[in-house]
Predict the structure of Mos1 transposase HTH domain-containing protein.
Amino acid sequence: MASNISQSKSDLTKRDFRAMILILFKLQRTRVEIYEYLQEHYPDLVLSLSTVERWYREIIHGNFVLEDAPRSGRPNISHNDDNVNEMLDLTTKDPHITYVQLDYETE
């Protein structure tokens, strides 16, 4: 079973870690114990103690929602495959292209 866990570590999302924090909270673990557990079992994880503490506080205040809250504003569209490929093509054709030129070419 341990091999299944190690294979799926890269597939874990923020939602998964929030769920683990919620479960460990319900098992009456402290913030530090939860952080140490996550660091022990997921050493490559970039999750700070302050993040664990923030999610822990949310749980204490009754927020058991595992998903990110919706945010207002324009959606981030800069990291889709089409945009990445377009930028790659432009920079491959002209490695000295400026940000202003890239902005103009991709409008």
